[in-house]
C-alpha cells in the first residue's frame, strides 16, 4: 500500500513528492478509527508552520482533508462504527497521508458525512468551510444587516464565506482579481451588493466601500492578505491585487471587525490609534487554530458538524476542481504537485 509524501531539501528551498510504500497499519485501538479513504482534498503545505512546531521529519504525509468509510474502530471509540461514512481533517502530526487507501485517525477529528453530500464535496469543502465559519461566526460575529467585505470572493474560501454571510442576512461586498472572477461574482444569488474589480490596480477599495455604505464604513472585513509597505518596497506580485493596510483601516466602520490572514501584520502607533478611535477589533485567521488547541476539541467538532449540515442543506456550494484518480504510479506525481501547491481538488 502506497501513500504520497513530500520531502524538503536541506536548504528548505526545494520540495519533492514521492509515493512511499507503507507498512500495514497496526491494530486499531483506544480512540482510533481505521478509515478507507474515498476522497482527499489537497491544500497548500505550510512548511513554515511545520518548522515552527519542530515537526522535522524525513518525509511529511500529504493530504489532510479526507472523506471515507469506517473499516474498524478501537475499543474506546464512542461516535462511530464500521461502515459509517465520515469526513474530517487529519491533524498536523498525523503519520498517515490522506492520499492513501487506508488511514488511521483519532475519532475527535471526524464527523459523520451527510448522505446527500458526495465524497468529493465533503473532502473538498471541509477546510474552507471551517475557515469561513471561524472567521464569520467566532471572530467577527456576523449578524443580519451587517456589511461584510470579502476580499478575493471568487476563491474557494471566498465563495463559501460569501454564501455563509448571505445566509446570516449580511450585505456582502467583494473584490475580483480578474474579469473572469468578476463575472463569477456577478452571478451570485442573492446578488452581491458591489463587486470591486481590482485587476487593473486603478480602483480604490476604500473609496468604493465608503461609497457603498454611505460613508459609514463596513462592519466586517475578511482580507486575503494586505500590503504592509509602499509600492516601492513590496514584491511586484502584491502590488495590484492586495489593498494596503491603511485602506483596510480607512474603510472599517465604528465597532468594525478586521479578520486578517496576514500573519506578519505590522501596525504602527498611528494605525493602532485609528483602530482605537473607531472601537474596532483585529483578529487573525489561523487555519490551524483548532488543531493547535486540544482544549477546544468539542467546539471544533461542532463546527465540523455545522459545516457539513449547511453543505447538505444547500446553504453553500463549494467551488471544486475536477477530481483526479489516485493512481499508484510515479508518473502522476507532477499532477499532484501542481494541485498541492496551487489549489484544492
From TrEMBL:
- What region holds the Enoyl reductase (ER) domain? 10-316
Going by the entry's taxonomy, the superkingdom of the source organism is recorded as Eukaryota
Name the UniProt record assigns to this protein? Crystallin zeta like 1
Q: Which residues form the signal peptide?
A: none
Check the record and name the InterPro entries matching this protein: ADH-like_N, CRYZL1, ER, GroES-like_sf, NAD(P)-bd_dom_sf
Q: Give the source lineage, highest ranks first.
A: Eukaryota, Metazoa, Chordata, Craniata, Vertebrata
SUPFAM superfamilies in the record, alphabetically? GroES-like, NAD(P)-binding Rossmann-fold domains
Give GO terms: molecular function aspect only.
oxidoreductase activity
**Transmembrane portions of the chain:** none
Report which gene this protein is encoded by. CRYZL1
Species annotation:
Macaca fascicularis (Crab-eating macaque)
Amino acid at each position: 500500500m502506497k501513500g504520497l509524501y513530500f520531502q524538503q531539501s536541506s536548504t528548505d528551498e526545494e520540495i519533492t513528492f514521492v509515493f512511499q510504500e507503507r507498512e500495514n497499519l497496526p491494530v486499531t485501538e483506544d480512540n482510533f478509527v481505521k478509515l478507507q479513504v474515498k476522497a482527499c482534498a489537497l491544500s497548500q503545505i505550510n512548511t513554515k508552520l511545520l518548522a515552527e512546531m519542530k515537526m522535522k521529519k524525513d518525509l511529511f504525509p500529504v493530504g489532510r482533508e479526507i472523506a471515507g468509510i469506517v473499516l474498524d474502530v478501537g475499543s474506546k471509540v464512542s461516535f462511530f462504527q464500521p461502515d459509517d461514512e465520515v469526513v474530517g481533517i487529519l491533524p498536523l502530526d498525523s503519520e498517515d497521508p490522506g492520499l492513501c487507501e487506508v488511514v488511521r485517525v483519532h475519532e475527535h477529528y471526524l464527523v459523520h458525512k451527510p448522505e446527500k453530500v458526495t465524497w468529493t464535496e465533503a473532502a473538498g469543502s471541509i477546510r474552507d468551510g471551517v475557515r469561513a465559519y471561524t472567521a464569520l461566526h467566532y471572530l467577527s460575529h456576523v449578524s443580519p444587516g451587517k456589511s461584510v467585505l470579502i476580499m478575493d470572493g471568487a476563491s474557494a474560501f471566498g465563495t463559501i464565506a460569501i454564501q455563509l454571510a448571505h445566509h446570516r442576512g449580511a450585505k456582502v461586498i467583494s473584490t475580483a482579481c480578474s474579469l473572469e472572477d468578476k463575472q463569477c461574482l456577478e452571478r451570485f444569488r442573492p446578488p452581491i451588493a458591489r463587486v470591486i474589480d481590482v485587476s487593473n490596480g486603478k480602483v480604490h477599495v476604500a473609496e468604493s466601500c465608503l461609497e457603498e455604505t454611505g460613508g459609514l464604513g463596513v462592519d466586517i472585513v475578511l482580507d486575503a492578505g494586505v500590503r504592509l509597505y509602499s509600492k516601492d518596497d513590496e514584491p511586484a506580485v502584491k502590488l495590484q491585487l492586495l489593498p494596503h493596510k491603511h485602506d483596510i483601516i480607512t474603510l472599517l466602520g465604528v465597532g468594525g471587525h478586521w479578520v486578517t490572514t496576514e500573519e506578519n501584520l505590522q501596525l504602527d502607533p498611528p494605525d493602532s490609534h485609528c483602530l482605537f478611535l473607531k472601537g474596532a477589533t483585529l483578529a487573525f485567521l489561523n487555519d490551524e487554530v483548532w488543531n493547535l488547541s486540544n482544549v477546544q476539541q468539542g467546539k471544533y467538532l461542532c463546527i465540523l458538524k455545522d459545516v457539513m449540515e449547511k453543505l447538505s442543506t444547500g446553504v453553500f456550494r463549494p467551488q471544486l476542481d475536477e477530481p483526479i484518480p489516485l493512481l499508484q504510479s510515479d508518473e502522476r506525481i507532477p499532477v499532484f504537485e501542481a494541485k498541492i501547491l496551487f489549489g484544492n481538488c
